[in-house]
Amino acid sequence: MHRLGIRGKIWGLAGALLGVTCVFSAIALVGIVRLADNLRHTHVLLDQAETAGQIRDDFVQAHAAAIEVLAGDSSRLQQVTTYLGKVSDSRRRITAAFLEVEEPARRKPEQAAKFNEVVDAVESYGSVLARARIGAAQEAGEILRQELIPARERIAAELDRLEGELREEARFLEAEGARLAGNAKLFVFGGAALTLFAGGVLGRLTVRRLSRGFTQVATAVARIASGDYQSSVPACERGDEIGTIARNLVDIRDKLRQAEADRAAHGAAEQRHSSLVEELSQRLSELADGDLDARIDPAAYDELESMYLKLCEDFNALAKGFTGLIGS
């Protein structure tokens, strides 16, 4: 037997749809959180790559100015100092950039160590340059060829490699972010579409079932209204409002059937009363005409009240009295 009423079914349907929506929303929310973390880490990687490129550019500018200083142009010494100072100051940017990564697994301390090694190498480059400046021209040339130029190549190559690694990882994360964004969009719109579809299907099934029950009850009402009190009423076993209506209709049908039976019984009794009156009138006429054998059989009216049976007996006694009187 169905236990839920129409309101209960509607609330149950709404709860089921809400549950489906919550599941898809939760999955989409997890994807959005992962996407936000992905975008944040991508930004950090790009910032680190930009720092590596800036260190390389500053160092290359410092090296170009250092060559001119060693060639005798002392006016470029301030530029060398400025560019090398920028490289030294970048150590703080490197530390801050790597600390922005919240997940320890993504901090990659080996890259931070490489950055610091490069900055240390640049600072060593400055010390070698200072040694070359105070030496003789021939010694300065040897230091330039044997130490400064190779140092410039090593440092620039290492910075290029670091920048390339960081940008490659950032591109990988961008691709992963696009995938996460697509998945989140899929779950958001897919969940909405599935919820609408499921709501339409379940709603249609519910409406169809309810309309079928109403149609059955309406048909039963029409039959009873036409006087068919013997027909059955469907949907009485349901536990919802339709079942309540059907059971109430059964009560009405039974009462109408009983009233019809009472009316039929009353009509039959009236007919028997009329028959008794007619027979009594006929027997009285016969008795008046001298037929002393006129009698009324009380057994023919035994379904009537006792007063009518007494009337039959009184007539028979009267006829018998006339017969005795005339016989004497």
TrEMBL record:
It comes from the Bacteria. Residues 208-261 form the HAMP domain. SUPFAM superfamilies: HAMP domain-like (SSF158472). The chain crosses the membrane at residues 12-36, 186-207. GO terms for biological process: signal transduction. This is HAMP domain-containing protein. InterPro entries: HAMP_dom (IPR003660). Pfam families: HAMP (PF00672). GO terms for cellular component: membrane. Keywords: Membrane, Transmembrane, Transmembrane helix.
